[in-house]
Amino acid sequence: ALSISADRRAARAAFAAARFRLYEVAPLIAADVASYVERWQQVAQTEPGAYTPLLKAVRSPENGRDWLSTPLLITQLLAMYDRTGAVPQSEIQLYDTTYSVLFEGREMGRGIRRVLPPAVLGRLVSYLSYELKARAGVLGVADSEFQSLLRVSGQLAVDDVPYLDDILTALDLPVRRTRGEGVGGEIRWSVTRDPFSEYLAARWVVDSGTVSDITGRLMTILKTGDFDKGVRFILPLAARLDRSIEQQIESYLRRVFNQ
């Protein structure tokens, strides 16, 4: 079997036991990123100069774009640029923009507000990303357990729960419904394994706004081994709540990782 991954640790941990042949994608450099953007422009057949501001920012050495190191990140950057014209200066800014587009724009146009306000939907998906990673990661949970998660989320009226299945399935979100092989196969729910889903889970970790709840949620998800990248989002998200909370969480993380 063949597996291609840009995340060396995740690939080795997930595929070594299954005897996959592993090919690693080397981190992209500035010239690679610029070439990728130019090819994207050719395929999209946009007007000349449409991507000039983005290419200028990508090529600018003072902007420090080391975080744009994988095709997935560049693709997401380009998709957001096409929608908003914004050029994020960091990975977390890219995910902030993505979150805003997903939960403050498109869903309103699709009439999702009739069931859930977009902001509530975003918070719910963050909660589900956290719970699914903490409980089962890519393996997912049974539909009955997922329905229970929805009911105890505290964000839905009981009558709204049945409609969430179709809403989440129809949208291109990290929370996914799958059905096992064969007629009547088991329905399971899982969350994708990518940095954006970890960003969503990190939003839920800091959502409570109290240090004890944040550290409790953080330790729960760290034990799963599926939150390596998400840790780096915790401090900047906590800083938006309160600088003192950020400092306490930073001190806590230093103690945890120095043990």
Features:
about 260 residues, two-stranded parallel sheet, globular, 3-stranded antiparallel sheet
Briefly summarize what is shown.
With 259 residues, the protein is mainly α. It has twelve helices and five strands. β1, α1 (8-15) and β2 (21-24) form a beta-alpha-beta unit.
Question: Would you spell out the secondary-structure blueprint of this structure?
Answer:
Layout: E1 2-5, H1 8-15, E2 21-24, H2 30-44, H3 52-59, H4 71-84, H5 91-109, H6 118-135, E3 141-142, H7 143-152, H8 161-170, E4 175-179, E5 187-191, H9 195-205, H10 211-222, H11 231-241, H12 243-258
Parallel strand pairs: 1-2
Antiparallel strand pairs: 3-5, 4-5
Can you characterise this structure?
Helix 2 runs antiparallel to helix 3 and helix 6 (118-135) crosses helix 9 (195-205). The chain is globular and about 50 Å long. It contains 12 helices and 5 strands. The two termini are 38 Å apart. Helix content is 59%, strand content 8%. Strand 4 (175-179) and strand 5 (187-191) form a beta hairpin. The protein is mostly helical and 259 residues long.
Largest sheet: 3 strands, antiparallel
Poorly predicted tracts of residues: none
Q: What kind of assembly state do the chains in view correspond to?
A: single chain
Query: How far is the N terminus from the C terminus?
Result: 38 Å
Structural class: mainly alpha
Number of E strands:
5
Number of helices: 12
Would you list the SSEs in sequence order as H and E? EHEHHHHHEHHEEHHHH
